[in-house]
Write a structure and sequence with these properties.
Layout (H helix, E strand, L loop, with lengths): L8 H18 L7 H18 L8 H17 L12 H9 L7 H20 L7 H8 L8 H22 L7 H30 L10 H28 L6 H20 L11 H11 L3 H18 L4 H15 L3
Length: 335
């Protein structure tokens, strides 16, 4: 990215806003001041202008500007009244680019990074509207299934569409029995794949010396392997939530989700040393761990650790966390 600075006004403005936001974040200022708001406003104005240009709208620099401003929002909690605040924003960007592949390696990495927010938004909200074919064409090809990271991302990327289809079929099961059975088989197949990937990720994590000092290379690898493994565990919990409404025997699903939840909790405790940004993804996985926790005591301890993470990374209040968990429960407890 540095070699592209000076070639795009939108990219330059986004970098300026993000650097300023990051500097404030590092000293604990999680809310923007007037100067930072002005920089953000200028970056959004230039980006809107470039998005209306048919050539600039599809350039690598414009795509990078969008990604940087999404990171800015995370650092400043400014998810309202901005260009990318709409949950469907990232998905619309992928749609607008069509099915043509990336123009270069830089753009390929940007598109891969952009798919992550699409998946998370689609998991948590209904506003992301991609058809099954669009998921297959625009999202799934971005991950290399030949390695552990790519395999679990491919697995997770299939979940939002499955969740959407389950919600559509459930009210009409008596009339759509073949569709229901096919969907159940599809979820079970993906769940079995997920379990195999979890084993691989667990073994990989076990090869890293957890006691390495935070400044060593092995510690940085460990900081990466923990969230990826937790992504696998969280995917397993979510798939169990979907299966829970399709299966007659719920007991084994709850027991497995409980084990996954406890593993996430234990790993999140060990990942505290990588806060705030090095373990920010644990917020999502702890939220899912809360969903899979078997009883009120387990939920309370997960919630307590989750609040510590959210306060360190996002500065959220207990009421914010309560509202988030209520929405999560409503979305995934599908009985």
């Amino acid at each position: 990215m540095p070699c592209r600075l000076g070639t795009s006004a939108a990219l330059d403005a986004a970098v300026d806003a993000l650097i300023t936001a990051h500097a404030r974040f590092c000293v604990g200022n999680l809310s923007p001041d007037l100067g930072l708001l002005a920089k953000h406003s200028r970056a959004l104005s230039i980006l809107r202008h470039d998005l209306n240009d048919p050539i600039k709208a599809h350039s690598s620099e414009t795509l990078c500007s969008i990604m940087l401003l999404m990171i800015y929002q995370t650092l400043t909690k400014s998810t309202k009244n901005s260009l990318m605040s709409h949950p469907d924003g990232a998905a619309r960007i992928l749609k607008s680019r069509g099915y043509s592949g990336p123009c270069n390696n830089f753009e390929s990495k940007l598109l891969s990074a952009l798919r992550g927010p699409v998946i998370v938004e689609a998991l948590m909200k209904d506003e992301v509207t991609l058809t099954q074919q669009e998921w297959n064409d625009l999202v799934l090809p971005g991950y290399d299934g030949a390695n552990g990271d790519g395999s679990i991302l491919q697995c997770l990327a299939r979940v939002p569409n499955l969740l959407q289809r389950c919600r559509e079929v459930l009210p009409y099961i008596p009339f759509l029995r073949p569709t229901f059975i096919g969907l159940k088989d599809e979820v079970e197949f993906l769940s079995q794949n997920c379990k195999a990937i979890i084993v691989l990720l667990r073994d990989r994590l076990g090869t890293i010396n957890e006691n390495s000092a935070p400044t060593t290379f092995h510690a940085h690898i460990h900081a990466h392997y923990i969230p990826i493994y937790c992504m696998g565990l969280a995917t397993g919990v979510i798939l169990n939530c979907i299966l829970n409404m399709l299966e007659d025997d719920h007991i084994w699903l709850g027991e497995e989700s409980s084990r996954y939840s406890n593993e996430i909790f234990q790993l999140a405790k060990s990942a505290v040393k990588f806060q705030p940004l090095g373990s920010a993804a644990m917020i999502l996985y702890l939220s899912v761990a809360w969903l899979g926790a078997p009883d009120s005591g387990s939920k309370d301890r997960v919630r307590s650790l989750l609040y510590d993470y959210e306060r360190a990374c996002l500065g959220l209040s207990p009421s914010d966390l309560t509202a988030d968990l209520e929405r999560l429960s409503t979305r995934f407890i599908l009985e």
